[in-house]
Amino acid sequence: MDADLTLDLIEATVQIDQPVNDQKRMVGTGFLVSVPREGAAPEVVLVTAAHVFERMPQNEVRIGWRVKAANGTWQYSPTRIPIRTDAGPLWTQNPKQDIAVIAVQVPPSYKDKAIPLSWLADERSFDQWHVSPGDEMMTLGYPHGYSANTIGFPILRAGRLASYPVGPVSSFPTFLIDLTAIPGNSGGPVFMTEHTERAPGADAPKATLVSGILTKQVEVNAQRLELGLVTHAVFVRQTIEQLFVARGQAPGVKVGVTSSAAPPPVVVAPKKLSPREAAGAAAVGQTKSKP
Q1: What domain range is 277 assigned to?
Q2: I need a labelling partner for 180 at 20 to 30 A (CA). Which of 1, 146, 250, 254 fits?
Q3: What is the pTM of this model?
Q4: For residue 94, which of 243, 269, 248, 284 has the smallest C-alpha distance?
Q5: Looking at residue 282, which CATH number applies to its domain?
Q6: Residue 144: its pLDDT value, please?
Q7: Positions of the region Disordered (predicted)?
């Protein structure tokens, strides 16, 4: 892979929100992945942190599509999608990691904006590209519900890989980056491109891959350590495979962890939210009800 992911991922990243009241809303981040299927057109799934959906109590969320008119002007055009019914969640959740995926119908202009599944790192990618502590990684999201502009494009931020070792993923499913995981960034993609900086003296090829998904800010005794917790993209692949297995289907390529079969799908029971969660807990984010 030698393409620069940055612009493609900006296009594929969307805001997920749900109103709390007339003044506030809960906000998270998600990104679109195109999954190949045997004998059928690719299917688009939305990837986010599972807690983003869990802490939004209503049955529908808004997805912040951005539409470009023929005259070149942009418009923020959110639509609602269901994420649960009275019977329970509609998303597929990883049994061990904070990752959720859900199939979505995207506007016509978004059919080519979902990133290919192949761009997600697999369990060999970090070794193949010699990913090391100090390497720069970037993320996209909506900190405290803010976007880069009124059209709803995500904000790009960067930090250094702060963990060692970062594999194997069976032993180290998450890693740290030196970046403040502000509420609202949860669910955003974490990625490297050929333009990101490597650790000084690193003898490594240029890497272009989605490394993982930002899932948590690190706190000790309610004090933020200015570190973000990232879950390996391998588990995004695994969760996508769960979605297809639950339907009795098979994706066009093997997408999960190759060393083991995909686990059965997880059914997440609806839970009663605490007042703090209902108001927008720190890992999701809350802002005034404007994009």
Answers
A1: 5-288
A2: 1
A3: 0.83
A4: 243
A5: 2.40.10.10
A6: 92
A7: 272-291
